[in-house]
Amino acid sequence: MPNGGLLEGKHAFITGASSGIGAAAARVFCREGASVTLAARRPERLAALVGELCAEGYEAQYVVVDVSRNEQVAAGVAQAVGRFGKLDVAFNNAGVAAEGTPMHLMSDEVYDTLMDTNVRGIWNCLRHEITAMLGRGGAIVNTSSTAGLVATPVAAPYIAAKHAVIGLTKAVAAEYAASGIRVNALVPGATHSEMTDAWMAKVPGVADELARAALLPRIAAPEEIAEAAAWLSSDRASFVVGATVPVDGGWTVR
User: Within 13 Å of residue 96, how many CA atoms lie on the same side as its CB?
Assistant: First the structure.
């Protein structure tokens, strides 16, 4: 077994784990000593990642979960606890975006999809994760976005959803801190991922525009966001609760 680190001996449940920040978190959390249960909707991606991690000597399993479906989340968390006997850490990272559309032209379907995954998905996860952590404590990190702090045009439901994630994080932190469960929100800036890269490829010049807007003028690697999630999930962040933590290269400073 490789040497551990920040998360030595902990078991982590990671959603949105088939690509991007979630897949990077799977690798970082394992490197830091955690065993992991990886959740997402694409079994072939999850199986490949779990195979990679297990070949390197880590403990990992996957569950196929659509976080907008409460019964699937319940089954996924139950499988995590069933195999590893506990749940110490949860990284609620699953999310979706939509193409930029003026609000008056936005369809109900797009609004519902964004809210169901980005807000209801975290709501579903929190309920089952907290149930598993009560009596022993734990750490939960919810992925929001710079869109949870500031607004830009043609993205109203996405911005509303990511603001809601921060509000939900604060509410749950206030309710469960006394139970030893720390809940925080991570706010990534522009980050290379399957979803973001596809969007940037469709919109000429947007990658350069995003990079120039940050104090560190570049797009983040997913591993950089995962490193922050690992720290927030660790005992090194033991006095951090209810926080909204930007990892955005200084984008929200401007």
Answer: 19
Give the per-residue pLDDT at 2: 46
Tell me if residue 62 is catalytic. Answer: no
CA distance 162 to 184: 14
CB 248 within 8 A of CB 188: yes
**Which band of pLDDT confidence, cut at 50, 70 and 90, is reported for residue 1?**
very low
- Compute the C-alpha angle 95/76/230, nearest 5°: 60
pLDDT in tens, 146-162: 999 999 999 999 999 99
- Strand 138-143 and strand 181-188: the pairing is parallel
What is the C-alpha to C-alpha distance for residues 181 and 95, in angstroms, rounded to an integer?
23
Residue 60: phi and psi, rounded to 5, are -150, 145
pLDDT at residue 3 greater than cutoff 60: no
DSSP one-letter string for 181-201: EEEEEEEE-SB--HHHHHHHH
- What the block records as the tokens of 177 is 């801190």
184 close to 169: Cβ distance less than 8 angstroms: yes
The β-bridge relationship of strands 35-40 and 11-15 is parallel
User: Residue 109 is inside which H or E element, if any?
Assistant: helix 108-115
Catalytic, out of 58, 62, 158, 176 = 158
Cα separation, 29 vs 77, in Å, equals 17
Express each pLDDT in 137-147 by its tens digit.
Answer: 999 999 999 99
